[in-house]
Amino acid sequence: MLMGIQEPKYKAVYNWIVDNINSGELKAGDRLPSENELSARFGLSRQTIRHAIDLLGQQKLVTRVRGSGTYVGGEVRQGRRERYMNIAVISTYVDSYVFPTVLREIESVLSGKGYTTQIAFTGNRVGREQEILSNLIDKDIIDGLIVEPAKSALPNPNLHYYRELMKRQIPVLFFNSNYPELGLPYVAMDDVRVGRKAVEYLVKAGHRRIGGIFKCDDGQGLLRYKGFMQGMQEAGLRAKDRNVVWIDSEDLVDMEYWSDYLFSRIGDCTALVCYNDEVAYVLSGICGRRGIRIPDQLSLVGIDNSELSTLADVQITSLPYPMEELGRKAAENIVKMIENPCFDGNYLFDSDVVERVSVKILGSGS
Predict the structure, then answer these.
(1) pTM score of the predicted model
(2) Distances (CA, A) of 263 to 277, 293, 298
(3) pLDDT at residue 81, as a whole number
């Protein structure tokens, strides 16, 4: 290297991989360390790591396999020779108003393609998720896994189980949310866009003092909040921190118990974006018991367009969650990932507001 000319940062990664291939430490078919692992090893950004990997790929020294990793060699690694025609599905809940329809569609599509479906539920608990994943790995009789992550907004202790499945070249597809650290594909509602559209609808109705209730332990809650903030900023509005309330799965069950605190936070709002229809439904009941009239005193927008949105005393404006479509897409994509390891299983669904009567139209000065 010439004096005064600094070698590009990506070359350290590039040279390390090439040297290990030449020395035999990395053999054809071996899986490279993940981008996160290489980033930690070399103290470089993931973008720099990706640039080195891309260059190696152009030279046919490595091959990326979507949902599995990057492997030494210029040929796409073939899937396991033995097929079990069995796909596992892990969901958080069995009795939620959303999941039965999603799971029914997944099972229907997979059955039509000749697969049996093995379904398990975590109750949104990472401990139960660990038990299920450990059992699946021990038995080793699945061709793919469709999974809704447990408490996806929180650090997860089970990531090594997913990495083991990736090492075994078993395709993994998340639905509703994902664990970003893994870089695995997922099928979900476009939660950021949905959060933004909820705010846009309220702003169009004349609301300016808009608050929100979001879940803090699920990735969907964080994304819907992100969209909420985007919508407020695009409308030239400032979201007050006190008007944004964060809840977890347990708080939702006990919402009546801590409702005094809730209303102390949102008391000056004319409208709320609710994490989902369940939050909106429970809140509407509490408002009724407190003598707070919806929508005259407080407007609500939910997300999911579930049956709950029509069961409240005042039917709730909501953005539909694509239950049937999402289930079908998840099943179709996992089969494609099994048949073609390079298939990109990612897909986000858009949604538009279904108007009911829970939002009041205000004057421009409100």
Answers:
(1) 0.79
(2) 18, 14, 11
(3) 44
